[in-house]
Amino acid sequence: MLDPVFGELEGFLPDFIGQVVERQRQQPVTPLKGPFPIDAQRRLAEEMMARIGFDFGGGRLDVSHHPFCGGVPGDVRITTRYSESDFARSFMAVLHETGHARYEQGRDPQGSGQPARRARGMGIHESQSLFTEMQVARSPQFLIFAAPIMRRHFGIAEGTPGWDADNLHRICTRVQPGFIRVDADEVTYPLHVIMRYRLEKALLSGDLPLEDLPGAWDAGMRAGLGLSTGDNHHDGCMQDVHWAAGLFGYFPSYTLGALIAAQLMAKLRSEHATLDAEIEAGDFSAIGRWLDARIWSKGSQLETEDLLRQATGTGLDPGCFRAHLEQRYLA
What we know:
13 helices, single chain, 2 domains, globular
C-alpha cells in the first residue's frame, strides 16, 4: 500500500517545494521578538487547549524534554517544552498533542477498557493530532481567532508589527528544507519519512549493509531535499530515537496521518459550509462532534481502511493532501 502512495508524493513534492520556497521569498515575515515568559506560554497553551475542547477534569499539561501525549481516556497527560525566544514552536506542539488527547478522551468515555474501544492505530492517532495542528491551527481562520488571545497573554498592544493574523500565518506556514525531521514543515516532512521508509526496507532486506547507512542517508537527503549531511551523523542517521528503540516500520504513520487528516478535513468542509466562520469565531464544537461520530467513537471496531471509507466515502486518497498543500501554499 505504501509504495504507490509514497511514489505519488515523491513525484510532485520536490518541484512543489521549490515553487513554494520561491513564492515565499516574495512574502516577507516580520519576526516576533521575545522574550516570551514561560508562565505566559503555559497560560496561553492551557486556554487554547480548553477552547478546542480538552477536558482538564480528565487530564493536564506538564513539561518534559519532548512534547508527548499519554495516559488513559480518563487521565490524559500532555507534555511540552518551552523556549523564551520562540513561543510558536511550543504553541503548535501543544495543539498537536491536544489532537492526540481529544482522540484519547473521546474513544472510550465510559472507561470500559474493551478491545473495541482501543485506538485504531498510530496512523489514525497521528491523523487526529495533525488534523488539529495542521488542518485547523495553522489555517488563516484559526490565527484570526488566536492572534488577539496571543497578544493578551504576552501583553502586546494591538497594532504591534508582526502580531497580526496575516504575519502569524506566514510564520506558521513557512517552508524551508532542513536536516531535522521533527522541525520540518508539513510540505517537506513527508520526504523525511519516505527516505527513512526506503532505508528501512533496504536494511531489512539485506540490500543495504549497516555500515553503508550514513552514505545512503546522505544520498537520500540530497535527492529529496537538496541537503547533504556528509559525516554529520548527529543531524543524519542518528537523529531519531526510533531505530535505537527498535521501532522499525513506525515512520510511515506520520505521513499516513497527514494524508488522512487532509482527507477528513476535505470531507468535513464539503458537509459543513460554515466551518471557516466557526473556526474564525473560536467555535470548535462542530469539529468535535464530527470527529467523535466518524473517528473517536468507532475505536477499533473497523479496520483503518474501512474506518476511513465509512468516514469519508472512499479509501485513502493522497490527492486530498496534495489539494490541501496547493490551496494553502500556491493558491
